[in-house]
Amino acid sequence: MKFSDLINQLSPQAHSLTSHPEINPELDNIMPIDEAHPNSLSYIEGDRFAKMVDITTASALILPLDSSLQDLAIKRKIAWLSSPSPRLAFAQVLNLFYQPYQPSPQIHSTAVIADDVKLGKKVAIAANVVIESGVTIGDDVCIYPNVVVYPHVTIGDRTLLHSNCTIEERTHIGADCVIHSGAVIGGEGFGFVPISEGWYKMPQSGYVILEDGVEVGCNSTIDRPAVGTTKIGKNTKLDNLVHVGHNCQLGENSALAAQVGLAGGVKVGNRVILAGQVGVANQAQIGDGAIASAQTGIHSDVKAGETVSGSPAVNNKLYLKVSAIYKKLPEIYKTVRQLGKSL
Amino acid sequence: MKFSDLINQLSPQAHSLTSHPEINPELDNIMPIDEAHPNSLSYIEGDRFAKMVDITTASALILPLDSSLQDLAIKRKIAWLSSPSPRLAFAQVLNLFYQPYQPSPQIHSTAVIADDVKLGKKVAIAANVVIESGVTIGDDVCIYPNVVVYPHVTIGDRTLLHSNCTIEERTHIGADCVIHSGAVIGGEGFGFVPISEGWYKMPQSGYVILEDGVEVGCNSTIDRPAVGTTKIGKNTKLDNLVHVGHNCQLGENSALAAQVGLAGGVKVGNRVILAGQVGVANQAQIGDGAIASAQTGIHSDVKAGETVSGSPAVNNKLYLKVSAIYKKLPEIYKTVRQLGKSL
Amino acid sequence: MKFSDLINQLSPQAHSLTSHPEINPELDNIMPIDEAHPNSLSYIEGDRFAKMVDITTASALILPLDSSLQDLAIKRKIAWLSSPSPRLAFAQVLNLFYQPYQPSPQIHSTAVIADDVKLGKKVAIAANVVIESGVTIGDDVCIYPNVVVYPHVTIGDRTLLHSNCTIEERTHIGADCVIHSGAVIGGEGFGFVPISEGWYKMPQSGYVILEDGVEVGCNSTIDRPAVGTTKIGKNTKLDNLVHVGHNCQLGENSALAAQVGLAGGVKVGNRVILAGQVGVANQAQIGDGAIASAQTGIHSDVKAGETVSGSPAVNNKLYLKVSAIYKKLPEIYKTVRQLGKSL
Questions:
Q1: C316 at the B interface (CB within 8 A)?
Q2: Interior/surface letters A162-194, b for 16+ CB within 10 angstroms, e for the rest
Q3: Do A198 and B108 lie within an 8 Å CB cutoff?
Q4: Domain B3-97: what homologous superfamily?
Q5: Structural domain boundaries of chain A?
Q6: Which of the listed CATH numbers 2.30.180.10, 2.160.10.10, 3.40.50.720, 1.10.357.10 matches domain B112-320?
Q7: Residues on chain A touching C110 (C-beta within 8 angstroms)
Q8: In this predicted complex, what is the ipTM?
Q9: What pLDDT score does C18 carry?
Q10: 0.95 surpassed by pTM
């Protein structure tokens, strides 16, 4: 693709794009900056830019709105496009070059589909998929090999279910969702009542709702509750190996990084970010726009907009102070002992 | 179901149940208190009760043994039943209204079952299940779609294996166990001996034993050892994404919450509770009735009955004190510096 | 097998082996020391040896180079072999007695294999395996039941793919690798650009490379990146439920224990050891031979050869000091308050 064609295709969606028209290389791939070669388009984030523009052999670059970098690129005869959001422009460019694999829209002969399953238009159901009774599947849904769907599940339009994932009974999955390989949606919540002989199992009669645009990472698990629902709001994204317990209610546009665990009944607001390995205790409530850094242990409510860190979680500013002093504990202890003696 | 019928069905198992006979609504579902409507039975835990009894539109409630709540319910014409263990009564009521999905007791034509597999009575083997040579399966076992069972596994009566789980070679699973979707039981323990060229793989010739009534959560993994066994005792329950390393020995009636990880050779007693994301180091021993709160890092033995917290784990009482003071480290440090100068 | 035969078979690979020739029992199994019986060979590690040599009923023992233990064994008529690396000798002995289950080298009739897949010699493809278009599979590869391989994957000679694992598009797996059950290799990296309406999905056009001899534990996940590669170096071993984010670059002969999580773009050197539940933040670099103890939270670079602990990670020696003092915080706080008053 000519660089000029790329700009033409990109412009309608990225309206504040600027670019240099005179250098117009042929582009045939997109590469990380340190693997780029002639005919590559490339992009890097942050301060390492300047140095790399000087040495890369890429033919085109996505730059921030920085005229000195643009000038440098021109001097080196590298085509460039600039955007107030270079990362977004990069994603949009990638979409012009690459589409992930999808099975073709047909029903494979080895799929086992109950008689009463309702299938939308142009549905792809790959080899060895099993779909139980009472399931409803929307248009353009794509189900990869070896997926299992339990009874009375509904799956919205254009949703993808990757291989070896399991969607348990009565789960509602909205439109434009992606369930990655090995994820389990709607498994039984972990509920056991202690009795003298051990445990009495709490039946899990509720169900899971994923609203439109939800993404669930590989081997993540979202449990259904005893009664009511476990809900993930619109466009919320979960990374790999995340656990969402029964009755959790997550808002919209939030993001949970890998290995995050939410116990039962946790409430998460909109645009919340939980970094890797964060744990949240039963019933804790996390307000809109809150952020928790990696490995944070949240035991009580977090206010909207707050950033928390540490286990147990405290405000991030306090955490940074405390962490810095933490390393000085031997010194503090020594002084305190000396002072204590003089007391 | 009439409320009076529910009480009749429930009474034999919940002998200390009390209820109000005069209000006798028709019940057709069980709902969380904030979603209940007429003809719902509902239940909530803890102090939020009083307020909700005042406003719910549920037709019946499970209450603790509290005469003022009972009187309030009568005043509002809500049927009630009271139990010294309302949560247990709730579970028992749910069992009257709800049964989870189970495949019917037949062998699906697409299942691949070795010739010498021994099958009990009324076994359900769903689509695309693969069962290798030398496996023995008890009565009323139910195997959901796409499960794989390696050679020489034994599975006890009434055990359920949910979809996409893998039971590796020579695993013994007892009666009345539930293996949730995607779990892997009996995979090779993580054993590599460092040698000059890298690693020499330790063969894993042992096997996993799950005693009766064990439950293993979605995508959890239990490894087999080099020699001997990895054992989970009777009625012990594991939540999702739990890792149990080779040669671990778990007692009876314990519960491990989501994302707990046990390294190799860990010993866990009876009625132990490990909360979410707890990690336990190689060979550590945890006594009967011990409790570890979420994200605890256990590096050495924990006494029977002790509650531990923190990483590295300390007694929970000490932890609570230390955590409270932890936040005051900036203040402490400031004071110590001032005092140090005056020294 | 006679003990003398075992020694004969073992000697070529374990050249510094010493043994006692006169006691020559028949051996029929290898057992943990506390389950050993006559005709068992056994082995234990560490200081518990002496006591066990005194009481075991095993017929043969693997001992360290310790003449007093050897003498004790002879006195008790127990055959022994000694090695400077008893653990390695144990692994080598186990290999003489035990081979894990492998499907036989044939293509099962229920496997669904695209027409253009290139298959090496003596490949085993078990029941219900699905292999998409453009895949290349080397000699002696063994694919267990219900595995799914997406298009354009390459798999090297002698590699094993255990049940229910998923290898996503364009992944390169080297020779002599083991992918354990339920693992997902090459799933989409977690990349979303925040926009006013929520998130814009970053396409993940890169791919995963596993070099020769890599092992990936059950239900672990290794993500592919937006551009470029995620790479695991030769002979590096990953335990269960490990997460490796997009663009991570791992060196050779490293080991990651269960539930370790690496965020995006992490660099890990050669012979690095990360213990259980360690988390590593975006772009952090860990030098050759570094070690992180369990639950460590690594937010910045770790030098070659350094041992780190704690969250946030500090040098292990400092960590041990700080952890010891940490428990004394109540006492420190009390003293500081007293001193503060006297200020």
A1: no
A2: bbbbbbbbbbbbbbbbbbbbbbbbbbbbbbbbe
A3: no
A4: MurE/MurF, N-terminal domain (3.40.1390.10)
A5: 3-97, 112-320
A6: 2.160.10.10
A7: 110
A8: 0.96
A9: 81
A10: yes
